[in-house]
Amino acid sequence: QVQLVETGGGLVQAGGSLRLSCTASGRTFSSYAMGWFRQAPGKEREFVVHISGNSRSTYYADSVKGRFTISRDNPKNTVYLQMNSLKPEDTAVYYCARGRGPYGSTYYGTYDYWGQGTQVTVSS
Is the pLDDT of residue 27 over 90? Predict the structure, then answer.
């Protein structure tokens, strides 16, 4: 089975930056899209961004466009989320997930494996 492990969360002041990493097990990492979702206390899970298996396509939620950047290093089985200009409303648990095919979507139901999550807290 596929396991995903997120790292890089923490506490940061508004305007600061964090870089999250997600490393996957398995030998077919490049065949699958990867996505990031987040969930704040008392709120539903929210789509953040996804990237295609070959890195040629990305799609960002309007709330993070221009501030967050997704990338992947397929030989290392790792996807990254660079978060800049962080705002208090970005505070959430961030999850990475593997898509069911090479292209992602904004719907959580199209992802078949999920990481345990990493906490991001942005103070005002």
Answer: no
